Amino acid sequence: MTDTAEQDNGPDRQQDDERSPQERLRDRRMAAQRQARRTLSRAGWGGTLRERLTDLMAAAPEVYDLDEQSDIYGNRIVAALEERVAGLLGTEAAAFFPTGTMAQQVALRCWAARTGDPAVALHALSHPEVHERHAFSQVSGLRPVRVTDEPRQPTAAEIRDLAEPFGALMLELPLRDAGFVLPTWEELTEVVEAARERDAVVHFDGARLWECTEHFGRPLEEIAGLADSVYVSFYKSLAGFGGAALAGPRSLIEEAKTWRHRYGGTVFQQFPTALSALVGLERELPRLPEYVRHARVVAAALREGFAEAGLPWARVHPGVPHTYEFQVWLPYAPEVVAEAAVRQGEETSVMLFANPWDGRGPGLAVTEVTVRARGLEWTADDVRAAVRDFTDHLPDKA
């Protein structure tokens, strides 16, 4: 029987065997997440093309006149989206970009030309330093100056004491790789003031700025108003197909549109992405504060669940989440906890930890937890029960 099975499934089995253990585990995790009956968040981008298009067509008539002519090189619906974003952020203008990487490079090179200084002060864990293959220096002629590598937001004292001059300060709000952390409102205003004292402009990497209002207790326009320019994403918080916007003074945005063209970002037609962004602004944006509040309930229940399970050490970071995303740290090798998370999903159809686990030193793993609409269905008791089941899939905790 074994020989027959291997012969009948030879090509598929060979292909499967060529994948690394990490790739096979990744595929199992994604399959378990798709099939899970309960999960704290289900990413829309993981759906099929049919599902994504069906959802868009169901929601689009609520946000835009579908009988209008489609866009050409950034007019019509794209221009309407830009106007909507500028209104939400309280800026004079906004420009649509296909990616945030492009938007931020353009913004900061425009500021560098105006200040005469290509140095950009930023956190060592900020997106351009970690995820963009040195695009600032390799593509845009900018020079990153690291303020700190501590897993927290920069302080006003660090900005004042930075040993070299800089033309712009870039602040990532929230700082994703440090645990989606934010400063307090008072700390943020002090950091901005410190940059102004050094005659620098301030740019917010606000990919997830939409999520920050609950933590700061301020509306979007007041938060964005602290900066000279702001970038926001349409898919990281709003579940759009992609895309980003750069918002700021009208003169900066007009210059940025010129550079957008030079960078190849003036795309012929972008109406599906623009439509999905408008849907996100209409449907998801109002719900983000609720997600943040419930993420705090989930985080507290996770802490309690791990304590009840008798784990020797576990950490939820930040202890009280600043957004609806946060980190969980456990004292295991990443492949061990990743296997436990996948098996829980496969065996119970409950996916407590749906994101990958990364190693952060010997015997220490970290994952990101996201709480969105699906997570609102979970009570604290549900979370604690899921933690008990998850830890039952771990090796002995002694």
UniProtKB/TrEMBL annotation:
Q: Does the keyword Transferase apply?
A: yes
Q: Organism's domain of life?
A: Bacteria
User: What molecular function terms (GO) are annotated for this protein?
Assistant: transaminase activity
Q: Name one Pfam family in it.
A: Beta_elim_lyase
Q: Which UniProt keywords apply?
A: Aminotransferase, Pyridoxal phosphate, Transferase
Output compositional bias ranges, type Basic and acidic residues. 10-28
Q: Say if the entry is tagged with keyword Ion transport.
A: no
Which co-factor is required? pyridoxal 5'-phosphate
Entry-linked Gene3D superfamilies: Aspartate Aminotransferase, domain 1, Type I PLP-dependent aspartate aminotransferase-like (Major domain)
Spans annotated as Disordered: 1-28
Check the record and name the InterPro entries matching this protein. ArAA_b-elim_lyase/Thr_aldolase, PyrdxlP-dep_Trfase, PyrdxlP-dep_Trfase_major, PyrdxlP-dep_Trfase_small
Q: Where is the Aromatic amino acid beta-eliminating lyase/threonine aldolase domain?
A: 74-303
Q: Which family does it belong to?
A: Belongs to the threonine aldolase family.
Which PANTHER family is this protein grouped with? L-THREONINE ALDOLASE (PTHR48097:SF9), L-THREONINE ALDOLASE-RELATED (PTHR48097)
This protein is called Aminotransferase class I/II-fold pyridoxal phosphate-dependent enzyme
Which organism does this record belong to? Answer: Streptomyces camelliae
